[in-house]
Amino acid sequence: MSAVPFALLDEQSKREIRRAILKGIAIPGYQVPFASRELPIARGWGTGGLQVTLALIGKNDVLKVIDQGSDDSVNAVNIKKLVTKTTGVQTTTRTQDATLVQSRHRIPEVPLRADQVLVLQVPEPEPLRDIERSEFKTKRYHAEKEYSGAYLMLFEQIMRYNQTSQGADYPVLVNGRYVMNPSPIPRFDNPKIHQSDALILFGAGREKKIYAVPPYTNVESLAFEDYPFVVEQFEGKVCRETGLSDVFLDELTDEVTGETYYVCNDTSYMQEILQQKVAAK
Amino acid sequence: METVHFTQLTFRTLMDCFARPGSKGTLQTLHSIDGLYPQTLSVLMTLFDGEISFQAVDDSKRLHQELRQWTGAKVKDYHEADFIIVPANANKEQILKVLEVVKIGNLIDPQQSATIVMELPQQSNEVVYQLTGPGILHKELVELGLSPDILALRAIRNREFPLGVDLILIDENGKVLALPRTTKLEEVKS
């Protein structure tokens, strides 16, 4: 048996992914089809993001992988292990120290810089899939910039709940042309994609699509004049550990007392703040 | 350097250039063939394989043959090729004729468009352009030794976004710059 290539994928697979990434950057928000290789993890577990990461990564990269804001959850740990075993690159939990960040369902609280790249794992890249099952047809809707279906979904939510109830994967309009699923990040993170300093790449392994938002690109969350876009509100709630209130919070229940409490969702950021507090004492 | 690491570095340079139009990247060299800058070959080795087709603006068949041997890529006509190679010795009339016919994709599959890898000859009359579009914070000023006629035709072919062509420009010092279809250029009169 021959040795495993650097970064697992063979050169031909990488070339195809790399060509798709360049097209994706040239057509912001457009889903570029790609072959999507078999990997040692199952489709639907971050294989799209992983393939993008493997096509990008070099010996000098420092990798951070997050899953729902956590560096230590199963998906993040396994992806990190696979990449380090096949590349030998360094990993980090500190957002500031990473050159490459692969993430499932969050954009880190620490703002990303121009020399960093964010790779997001995407389960469903098609924002119109809920209203149209046929890929043949949704491709034509995109071609004709026919996005009334995306607005209709939000309209129905407003009719039912008097607000949009779409918690994650809230659709955005990229560069005034393509409506795009930003992957299941909370609405709270949507504004971070707009005019980002870092390049953001999206990989959907099961659906075989790669797309991109270049830096300094206009990204607007869909909304109505009388129902503007709003992010999750955490009024009066603070992180129990750090006291932060301007971050995305997780709601948890104390199993002994039954009391509801909140903690910072981005665990590495929380740790950093706690360390700063300890150092200050 | 091993090829896997070489193509990885070359790709990251290209990706940065696409993500930030107007910024110049430095390409490394590994091999060379007659008639192309060695840095151009680095780009072709990174992007070309048997899955894609190309055509070079070149009268001799030798370059085509050598590139096929190097990469396994197929040769197709200008209007069908995925990549167009413009060597430094191509003249303006040739380039304009090619740019007129290369594929720009269709509204359903805008990615089925040509990428033009163009070598810039040593130039004296460089023009300053102001670049705007995705990837550019406010605006970027760039000196380019590229004929205004070529850029005017590029603008025509890129008129209907998402249709259009993407350009990779390589100068004789191995500096690379990308002009994806989203980038708008405007001449800055001094």
TrEMBL record, chain A:
Keywords tagged on the record: Lyase
Gene Ontology BP term (one): organic phosphonate catabolic process
Pfam families registered for this protein in UniProt: PhnJ
Gene Ontology terms, MF aspect: 4 iron, 4 sulfur cluster binding; lyase activity
Superkingdom of the source species: Bacteria
Name of the protein in question: Carbon-phosphorus lyase complex subunit PhnJ
From TrEMBL, chain B:
An MF annotation (GO) of this entry: lyase activity
Protein name: Phosphonate C-P lyase system protein PhnH
InterPro entries with a match to the protein in the record: PhnH-like_sp, Phosphonate_metab_PhnH
Keyword Lyase assigned: yes
GO annotation (BP), single: organic phosphonate metabolic process
Domain of life: Bacteria
Keywords from the named record: Lyase
Organism: Lysinibacillus mangiferihumi
Claim: S-adenosyl-L-methionine is one of the keywords in the record: no
Membrane-crossing residue ranges in chain numbering: none
